[in-house]
C-alpha cells in the first residue's frame, strides 16, 4: 500500500503578506500602465517546447528561438511563466486533435490561404509574473503575480512568456506557490463552464443539490468536488477504488468504485441526482440519464463531446453541422423520453471567474492537487506521465527552476495536508 504525499499546501499568512508588499511596490512605481519590465527590448526569441508537426511524443522539440509574444494590442498582458500544467487536451492537440477548428479560431484567413499553424506551443495553464502591459490594461501592472488558462487557440504556456488579453488573466492566490497555482486555472474554468453555464448551479443555488461526478479523481474531478462542496452541494463521485481516499479527502460525500463493472446498477440504487457532470464519456450516456430526477430541471452535462473529432474528420462545415444535429437530436430525445436536459460543456476563458476561485483558494476551501512535478527540461517525460492515464489531480511543469519566490515562500513556513492516495501507483515526480 503505497501512500503518496500530495502538494496540497496552505501557505502562511507571512508569505501572503510578502507577496502583497511586492505588488504594492510594483503599483506605486507604475503610475502608467505601459511600463515594461520584460527582459530586454532587443530580445525577440524565448525558450519554449514547440511542435512543428502533429504526432507522438517525438514531435516535442525544445527551442531557444521561439518568437517572443510581445504585447501588440492595448488590452494585452505579457507574462513570464513560472509554472505550467498539462491537461488531456495537450496530449490530444499534440496528435492533431481539433486542428481544423482551432486553426480557424486562431486566424480565419489562414484557413483560406493554407498557412501553417506551426510552430505550435502547447500548455494551457500558467502561473507567473506580469512583465509588460498594453496601454489600456487597467487591472494589472508589471510585477503582479497572476494565473490564467491559455485558450487552446493561443500559443501555450510551455514557454518562457505568454501574452493574453487582460480579460483572460487573474491575480494568483497569494496562499499558493506558482507550482500549486498552475494546477488550477484550466480545470477551474472548465468546471465553472460545465457546472454554472451548462449545469445551472451556482454558489446560491447549489445548497443540498445532489450532484454526481463521473470520473472524480482527475484534474476536473478533484477541482469540481471541492467547488461543489464549498457551495454546499451533496457530491457523489465515481472513481477507481484506489482513488477513494483522495476524493473523500477532498470532501466527496459518497464514492462509488467503477472498476467492478456494475456501476449503473449500483448508482440506480441511490437517490436520484439534480446534476451529473461526466468527465469520462465512453458508454456513460447509455445509463446516466436514468439517474437524474425526471421533469424537475435536472441536467446531464458532459465534457467529452464529439465536436472536434467531427470537424477533424468531416471538415469544418460538415463536422459542425453533424455535431450540431447530433446534439439537438439527442437533447430532444432525452427531454421527451426522460424529462432531463442533455448538454455539452466546453472550457471558456474567464479571468473574472478565476478571481472568484482565488477567493475560495485563499479561504482554504479549494486546495491544489498536484500529483507530479517536472522541470522545464523534462516536458516530454511529463507528457509520458500523462499518457499513462489514471491521473490523480494534475501534472505540473516548473518553467522557472529553483524559483526564488517559491523557495522564499517555503522558507516562511508551510502547512501541508496529506491526502491518502491508497495503493495507486503514481509517477515518480522529477526532482
Ligand atoms: N470539453 C472541454 O472543453 C473539456 C475541458 C477539459 C477537459 N475535458 C475532458 O474532460 C475529461 C476529464 O478531464 P480531466 O482533466 O479531469 O482528465 P484526467 O485528469 O485525465 O482525469 C480523468 C480521470 O478519470 C478517471 N477515470 C477513467 N475512467 C473512468 C471511469 N470509467 N469512471 C470513473 N473514472 C474514470 C481516471 O482515473 P482511473 O483511470 O485510474 O480511474 C482519471 O483520474 C477528459 O476527457 C478531457 O479531455 C473537456
Automatic annotation (TrEMBL):
Protein name: NAD(P)H oxidoreductase RTN4IP1, mitochondrial
UniProt signal peptide: 1-18
Any Pfam family the entry gives: ADH_N
Domain Enoyl reductase (ER): 55-397
Pathway the protein takes part in: Cofactor biosynthesis; ubiquinone biosynthesis
UniProt region (Disordered), positions on chain: 408-431
Recorded catalytic activity of this chain's protein: a 3-demethylubiquinone + NADH + 2 H(+) = a 3-demethylubiquinol + NAD(+); 3-demethylubiquinone-10 + NADPH + 2 H(+) = 3-demethylubiquinol-10 + NADP(+); 3-demethylubiquinone-10 + NADH + 2 H(+) = 3-demethylubiquinol-10 + NAD(+); a 3-demethylubiquinone + NADPH + 2 H(+) = a 3-demethylubiquinol + NADP(+)
Localization: Mitochondrion matrix; Mitochondrion outer membrane
Record-linked SMART domains: PKS_ER
Lineage top rank: taxon: Eukaryota
GO biological process terms held by the UniProt record: nervous system development; ubiquinone biosynthetic process
Molecular function terms from GO: nucleotide binding; oxidoreductase activity; zinc ion binding
A Gene Ontology term for the protein's cellular component: mitochondrial outer membrane
